């Protein structure tokens, strides 16, 4: 099964309690595949977190990139979260493992 890791790189960041995921496809064909498969709903389902708002997706076709924001994903933010990775850096690996097909999503918490 093809995963995000097969055709893109992912970087994460944070703004308060919001996780920001930037997905950069390696080529134009991969960008189109990712644009079709990585909907806001699919990403929300893959992470299966209790969020404080909807996942937002922004397409950046000139850069072959997608940006997702997941509000409330960081359990209180960098200074308020009891989890080890308050910045959410390790959460980029979880998106890389997402299958680009019909496989069921995996919970991370």
Write the layout of secondary structure elements.
Elements: E1 8-15, E2 18-25, H1 28-37, H2 40-47, E3 56-60, E4 65-70, H3 91-96
Antiparallel strand pairs: 1-2, 2-4, 3-4
Detailed description of the structure:
A hairpin with a 2-residue loop joins strand 1 and strand 2. The longest helix has 10 residues. The protein is of the alpha+beta class and 109 residues long. The chain is built from three helices and four strands, in the order E-E-H-H-E-E-H. The chain is globular.
Number of structurally distinct domains:
1
CATH class division:
Alpha Beta
**Rg, nearest Å:** 13 Å
The main sheet orders its strands as 1-2-4-3
Shape, per Cα inertia axes: globular
Q: Report the strand count.
A: 4
Runs in which pLDDT lies below 50 for 5 or more consecutive residues are 103-109
The CATH architecture designation is 2-Layer Sandwich
**In terms of structural class, how would the helical and strand content be classed?**
alpha+beta
Largest sheet: 4 strands, antiparallel
Strand coverage percent: 15-25%
The helix/strand order is EEHHEEH
Q: If helices are DSSP runs of H or I spanning 4 or more residues, what is the number of helices?
A: 3
CATH topology: Alpha-Beta Plaits
Mean pLDDT: 84
- Level of helix content? 10-25%
Termini Cα gap: 23 Å
State the main characteristics.
single chain; Alpha-Beta Plaits; alpha+beta; disordered C terminus; globular; 3 helices
TL;DR?
The chain is 22% helix and 25% strand.
């Amino acid at each position: 099964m093809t995963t995000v890791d097969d055709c893109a790189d992912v970087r994460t960041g944070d703004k308060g309690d919001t996780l920001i995921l930037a997905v950069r496809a390696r080529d134009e064909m991969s960008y189109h595949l990712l644009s079709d498969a990585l909907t806001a709903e699919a990403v929300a389902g893959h992470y299966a977190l209790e969020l404080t708002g909807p996942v937002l997706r922004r397409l950046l076709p000139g850069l072959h990139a997608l940006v997702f924001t997941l509000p409330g994903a960081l359990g209180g933010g960098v200074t308020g979260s009891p989890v080890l990775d308050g910045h959410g850096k390790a959460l980029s690996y979880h998106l890389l493992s997402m299958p680009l097909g019909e496989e069921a999503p995996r919970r991370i918490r």
